Amino acid sequence: MWRSLQIGLSQLFSPAHSTGELVAYVVGALLASVLVLALLHKGLGWRGKRRLTMAVTFTAGLFFALEYFYPVRMVAGRQRNFLTDYIQPANEVLAIIMAFTVGLGIYSLIQVHGRNVLRQRRGWCNSLAFFLSMVVMFGFTLADNYIKVSDPPPAVLPYPKASFEILFNGLFMPLQSATFSLLAFYIASAAYRAFRVRTLEAGLMMAAAFVVMLGQVPIGAWLTHSLPVTGYHGIPAFFRLENLGEWVMTWLNTPAQRGITFGVAIGALAMSLRIWLSLERGTFFSEQS
Amino acid sequence: MEAAAPQGFRQRLQQLPRGFIYLLMALVVVWQLLFPLPMPISPSATTKGVYDAINKVPPGKLIVISADWDASTEAETGPQMTAIMHACFRAKKPFALLTLSPPAGAKLANDRAVAVAEQYGAKYGVNWCNWGYKYGYENIVMSLAKNIPATLKSDFHGDPISALPMMTGVKDYRDLGLVIEVTGLANVTEIWLGFLRGPFGTPLAAGYTAVMAPGYYPFVDSHQMAGMLVGAKGAAEMEALVEHPGDATRIMNVQSWAHLLIIALIVVGNLGYLLARGGGRR
């Protein structure tokens, strides 16, 4: 019965063979999703919604945990257990659900910025720029994906592809890089203003910072290059800044990071369990109770 | 009056105008970009670990380079990526690019791969390929463990993944010789450690921005990772290993003097602070 259900579903959801079929699938799936969500929203009270969410969360968590921890055996050259075959479709479902969150994000942005533009609030020009950027980038990215060119590409690209290249490589990339490169200026200024040796601990931190900063760049190695690499039981070589920097990172940083990682991992495990078992407060409509 | 002047000097040492600091930094950066003073670069143990891991990949196994970065961190991760590709092509090890996040990483890495492949006469689909951006983070990493072709379906160009000659016989993680995670994002490596390195024992290496690298030293120390490239420094060291000095080597000249400037500024600020404190005590 299960097998016939699988066959039936795969026949129903066979891959689209034409653009029209694809558009029909997408629109149909969207309409069906909206209908299901609307029915759930109207038909279930907050208690029902909460129970449904808890049940789905628990089942999904149990599925992935069981699949990961349940012993495997070799079948047709692959290690698998009774749940392995369902990982693929389960992940596809998850990807679709996650894609809905992108749509939700865009909807929220449109709502906020649309209100700014319509009411001409302060800074409404920025909101308008958001709409323009989103529409233009969206359009040209789609065009770039769907317009195929020969390999190697021609000297003159078709207009939509060339426009995408200009927008992506000529505008988006430099803007993003420039934003982050400003960090160099802010860090220089912030380090100068905030770094004061007020206590012994601050002094130790500064010493470690200087060693690591110089050990990470060739000029550090150059400053101490006259120290012999061999001899005297390797003691002078240890004080070469690149070695001293590596020592700080390996011998001082590593144990500290390991301790932090253990702490974070235990915390994350506890939090995951609380979410899985719906014990976490403030989730799943609990505030409506 | 005599005491007021030194006090003002001490205060001024602590309160250099922000614009002046920015100007100094800009001058240092431009000076080193235009007139670099080349300095020797000696590869660290963590970088050698990545280089050795690439060379140790057995014949018939695929290297996956996960390009999880975009323009915001490209100054560090971009040259890392290029240097790693050089190492793969030099060692004649086929590799596949994959992007889990952010989406722009797929194109940025592809552009770099096309440029490097040209230098070696490498062919797409034979010596390298791009699996493209796959949405789903750990779900993708988890699915790849079970069935690589079924998870990927199509490559960066939208063509069927099974049509690529180098993908013949690649079924799951046991067919991979190494995964190199190049990223500016925290917590992606942990996914690979959990679903690849742990259950399958497939070697894992990484390239990180300098600011996130300290958090991953424990994994190199425990040999869960074969090695890692630390920021532009790691990229420059890799460039030295593959004898192909590029962007990172230039960046290291700039970074050297920028670090010196920051240290000098901190010293000046503290000098003013200590002088002012000494003056106050008197």
Tell me about this structure.
The complex is a heterodimer of chains A (289) and B (282). Chain A is mostly helical and 289 residues long. Among the domains of chain A are: 122-193, no CATH class; 195-269, no CATH class. Helix content of chain A is 74%, strand content 2%. Chain A contains 10 helices and 2 strands; from the N terminus they run H-H-H-E-E-H-H-H-H-H-H-H. Chain A has helices at residues 2-12, 19-43, 46-69, 87-118, 124-146, 159-194, 200-215, 218-223, 235-238, 241-276; strands spanning 73-75, 78-80. In chain A, strands 1-2 form a two-stranded antiparallel ribbon. In chain A, helix 4 runs antiparallel to helix 5 (124-146) and helix 5 crosses helix 6. With 282 residues, chain B is α/β, with parallel strands linked by helices. A 6-stranded parallel β-sheet of chain B has the order 3-2-1-4-5-6, sandwiched between helices. Chain B has helices at 4-14, 18-34, 45-55, 74-90, 104-120, 138-146, 148-152, 188-200, 217-221, 231-241, 247-281, and strands spanning 62-68, 95-99, 128-133, 176-183, 204-208, 228-230. In chain B, helix 3 (45-55) crosses helix 10 (231-241) and helix 4 runs parallel beside helix 5 (104-120). Chain B is built from 11 helices and 6 strands. In chain B, helix 4 links the parallel strand 1 and strand 2 (95-99). Helix content of chain B is 54%, strand content 12%. The longest helix of chain B has 35 residues, at 247-281. Chain B folds into 2 domains: 4-35 and 252-281; 45-245, Rossmann fold. The radius of gyration of chain B is 23 Å and the shape is elongated. Chains A and B meet through helix 4, helix 6, helix 7, helix 8 and helix 10 of A and helix 2, helix 5, helix 6, helix 9 and helix 10 of B.
